[in-house]
Amino acid sequence: MNVLRPGGQVLAMTATDTNTEARTLDEALQGLHFAMVGTPDNEVWKSRPLTLAGIEGSSLHFLVSADADWVQSIGTGSTRCGTTFSDPSKNDYVALQGSARALRDQGLIEALWSPEAGAYFEGKDDPNIRVLAVDVERGEYWDSPGGTIGRLLALTKAAAGGDPGKEGPIKL
Prior knowledge:
Elements: E1 2-4, E2 10-13, E3 23-24, H1 25-29, E4 34-41, E5 44-56, E6 59-65, H2 69-74, E7 79-87, E8 92-103, H3 106-112, E9 129-143, H4 147-159, E10 166-171
């Protein structure tokens, strides 16, 4: 597994990484919309599912409620954050680390707004909407052929010494 810092420079790589290929954040998250976002709560990390509303550079954006305790604990400052995405049916997995900020930016809220967000908020002007901006500092991805047949082919190929799938760093 590769570990990155902004700019895409590899900081560390394990000896088992023989099939790595760097991808951009957009490439790694293509088709992945649902995340588990983890933040510290005292000495315990807690995660919750969120829907990705947008990506801008190396920042992920989610629409969240200011009423949530965990959002209030972030406030306008910054806190460490771990974010994962997965689609087990396609064998796609992404793990990202960085920091999170809760923003009240009406222009950004309007740009990120979708009909689906209307299920959680009273409209774009709801005073409780915040943008959770996750500034990604490093990340990794893993993928291999999807579906039952794809997994069987990947296992067979790996057993025969072939390429079991791809993994690598996220270029920021």
